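Wed. Picked up where I left off yesterday with DNA-binding protein. The coffee machine is broken again, so keeping this brief.
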Amino acid sequence: MPITFNVIPRRNPQSPNDPPKYYANVVGNGVTTLDDLAKYASTVSTVSKADILAVLESTFSKIAEDVGDGKIVYVGEYFTLQAGGSSEGKTTPDEVNASTITAVKTIFRPGKLIKDALKLATFQKKS
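Structure written out below (tokens, as returned):
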């Protein structure tokens, strides 16, 4: 199934009087839930959906806990997750402390399997 995109106009903020240029904007097309993953896994294995859900829930809980503890979590050849953030700039190292951290985010790095899947992806304009 192709990745869907729509077309959006964007103006150049440095030249606001220039006509806009048009760009492809990739949009989500449906969702896959944890339940969907478990249902699929149960169809391609001998393990029940309930057992798979239990394993996935415990695995993702551990991933969240470890990322929250500052660990880099490698999930095979699928992806890597870790915490990242932004802070206020200070003039001396002694002024930098935990209160200068202004935002925390999750850094997601796709692994080989996801990168390869995206290389093979096709695209379709949303109608």
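Quick read: Residues 72-120 form one domain.
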